[in-house]
Design brief:
This is (2Fe-2S)-binding protein. With about 190 residues, this protein is α+β, with helices and mostly antiparallel strands. The protein is built from five helices and five strands, in the order ββαβββαααα. About 30% of the residues lie in helices and about 15% in strands. It has a five-stranded mixed beta sheet, sandwiched between helices.
Amino acid sequence: MSESAVEWPAVGLTLRVDGHEYPVPQVWIGDSLLAVLRERLDLDEPRDGCSIGECGSCLVTLDGRPAAACLVPAVAAADRDVRTPQDAAFEAAREAVVAANASPCGFCAPALTVAITDLLRRNADPGPAAIREALAGLVCRCAESGRWIEAVARAKEAGVGDGGTRGPAGGDSGEMAVLVIEAGETES
């Protein structure tokens, strides 16, 4: 049988994205959450920077935990809470990023808003070293870390992270945790 004759399995699923349910009738079981968000749901954010989990551009939250959408199979996100950088929950962090000019070209701004929000939920008062460490997983060519530190300070002033919620590790290490779920794996 030739490669072109191979039929890849497809499934139907429902994605809960930014508080809305989206039925997606035909998803190839190998499609990433990023591919489905961008190509099937026509969302501009998250961004696709590398498709291999190296740049952080595709950062979303999955059940409240940061996740590289390019590494999460879409089938693993079915019936779970997916929040993209477009969600209203990230608005104050987005405004802080803009005010600090922390993403001059704008490409990494969506992921930066997710990462800043997660950082401030885990650590209400991170110092410059903790901020640099927490945001080190994001690749940006046009901003220096001083702008990111200012963006975190502005986000903190705007109340980002208030509410007593804790990140996935439950600690204050300042390290950004990225969740990757393999197909068929369940979270305990």
